Amino acid sequence: MMWKTCSVRLMAIFTLLISSPLIADELSAFDKMSGQLNIAGGTAHIPVMKKAARNIMGHNPNIRITIAGGGSGVGVQQVANGLVDIGNTGRALKNKEMNLGLNSFAFAIDGVAVIIHPENPVNDLSQQQIIAIYQGKITNWQEVGGHDRQIHLFSRDEASGTRSVFSKKLLKGAPLAGNANIVPSNGAMKTAVSQDVAAIGYSSVGYIDEMVKAPTYNQIKPSQEACASGEYPVVRRLYMNTKGAPNGLTQAFIDYIYSKQGAQLIQASGYIALDAKP
Amino acid sequence: MILVVISGLMLFAVFCFLIWFSLPVFLTETSLVFSLQWQPEQGHFGILAMVFGTLSLALISTSAAFVIALGLNSFCLLSRRRWLVVILRSLLKFMAAVPTVVYGLAALFLLLPLLRNGLQLGSGYSLFAAICMVILLILPVICVMLDNITTPLWQQYALGAQALGFSPEQTYMRVILPHCKVNICGAALLGFNRAIGDTMLPLMLAGNATQLPSGVFDAMRSLTAHIALVIATDQGSEVYNSLFAAGMILLMSSACICLLSRSLVGRN
Residues of CATH 3.40.190.10 domain(s) within chain A? Predict the structure, then answer.
């Protein structure tokens, strides 16, 4: 995992190096600005926000950007109360939250896919099979074309946005078996599944690499491209939310996320960049 | 004096805070916090399985650690190889200073693969794995307390008992242990309290499954791990409110155990 983050960082640095003439243009919007921008909320957003903040603060030291986690619920609460300038959510705002005068900016698509151990011979799982596995009705890999091994279930914690997407869009609200092991992060999920040949888990598409294997879902490969085209259905959008219309530094930050370089940062974090709303 | 009053008030405030926030959770019928089912997506918010998980973890690990600690204690007093005793004592004191997350990490990469691949016991994340490491965690607590209790008694009575014809083993069993059995209970209770309160080990090793464990090789979730997992959810949701019930149960149990052990030790 460490190698992965390292290589991602190297890639980011590399892309920065080759696109340096471009940077000057996109970061020049921040030239005459100063002040503080506070961001909180969804944890999936943090890699993108951090990379953007590093570039902006490196370009203009008079700008300070703070980034906190807390989850989607915290993001909405804090931005509505004016505690932060941007509150991130891994879901669309509820009607109740729209009425607080919040503006939503979807900037990326994140897919959630089932992952298994690379040595597991299973190559495709249908939605019915996954539901039956997570309900505890299918308990042996033999029943879905694998070896004669008990299936070890892994799921995410209750605060996880990944879990809520998985539960809503893939399990369609079917109850999760009580014997599922719960791990607290996407990284921990990947570690757990990569160490156990009989494990099944799920994670953000951005986390899938050679350590784990993502079987096709109803014959569709859960790739970034399939998520972007809508062919792979278990996806969610990542949002930035502001109270009222953004202005000044907040507006510049959102523009930067939507810029070409912002899209590269989003890609480097494993997500698919979206264009700004016309 | 002022500090005592302030710390007393703060403890009182913690109690009031928890009672205030958990009362609505206990009183509303819809949430049914005292049921076995925890399926937040389906509207079941029962934490009884976690209560049971915590109790089984604490009871089993304390009993095991207690027996081992008695053995180590007798070895410290009776062994003729004094250099080994010196090493053992300093090792125990060192163990008391190891952060739990280190034990958790070591078990994650040593014990769990052994359970999973070597012994073919499910995914390895189990009550058993947590028990093994919690024993390591509370062993030094109980051992050091036992040692502090029995060493002065040994110096006081060993010679007299020997003059009366007791062997060293008989002295330990018949004189020392009966003389301080209340303090020994106190030591066990403190170990139990530590086992109930530990978060990191069950969170990392026990699998956090919300079922009622039917054996030691099943995954389970402790109350402390439940709090750690759920604290990041939306404030005010029913999932979040189960935190207060869990915190209340933990605080109550640890307060009861503390009072019990104080009164035991104090009476002696």
Answer: 37-108+236-273, 111-235
In this predicted structure, the answer to whether residue A122 has a pLDDT above a threshold of 80 is yes
Identify the weakest region by mean pLDDT among A5-19, A145-159, A168-182, B250-264: A5-19
Q: How many Å apart are CA A107 and CA A257, to the nearest integer?
A: 7
The CA distance from B256 to the nearest CA of chain A, in Å, is 30
Q: Do A159 and B231 touch (CB under 8 A)?
A: yes
Cβ-based neighbours of B265, under 8 Å, separated by 6 or more: B182, B183, B186
Q: How far is A27 from chain B (nearest CA, A)?
A: 34
Cβ-in-10-Å burial (0-12, 13-18, 19+) of B30 comes to: exposed
Is the CB of B208 inside 8 Å of chain A's CB atoms?
Answer: yes
Interface of A with B in 73-102 (CB under 8 A): 73-74, 77
Task: Tell me how close the Cα of B95 comes to any Cα of chain A, in angstroms.
Answer: 27
pLDDT confidence of residue B134: 92
Which of A1, A43, A179, A185 would best serve as a mutation to test chain B binding (most B beta carbons within 10 A)?
A: A179
List the one residue out of B211, B103, B194, B99 whose CA is nearest residue B142.
B194
C-alpha pair distances (Å), B265 with each of B180, B181, B184: 10, 10, 9
Please list every residue in chain B whose beta carbon sits closer than 8 Å to the beta carbon of residue A150: 122
Q: Do B209 and A182 touch (CB under 8 A)?
A: yes
**Cα of A262 vs its chain's centroid, Å:** 15
Interchain contact, A158 vs B124, CB within 8 Å: no
Q: In this structure, are residues A201 and A159 in contact, taking their beta carbons and an 8 Å threshold?
A: no
> Mean pLDDT over residues A72-96, rounded?
83
- CATH number given to A111-235: 3.40.190.10
Determine how many CB atoms are found less than 10 A away from the CB of residue B242.
26
- Chain A contact for B122 (CB, 8 A cutoff): yes
Phi and psi (nearest 5°) for B228?
-60, -35
| Closest partner CB to B40 (pick from A72, A73, A158) | A158
Distance from CA of B69 to the nearest CA of A (A): 32
Q: Give CA–CA dist B54/B49, Å, rounded.
A: 9
Q: Is A72 on the interface with B (CB under 8 A)?
A: yes
CATH of region A37-108+236-273, choose from 3.40.50.2300, 1.20.140.10, 3.40.190.10, 3.40.50.300: 3.40.190.10
**How far is CA A81 from each of CA A75, A78, A90, A97, B133, rounded to the nearest angstrom?**
10, 5, 19, 12, 44
Q: What is the pTM of this model?
A: 0.76
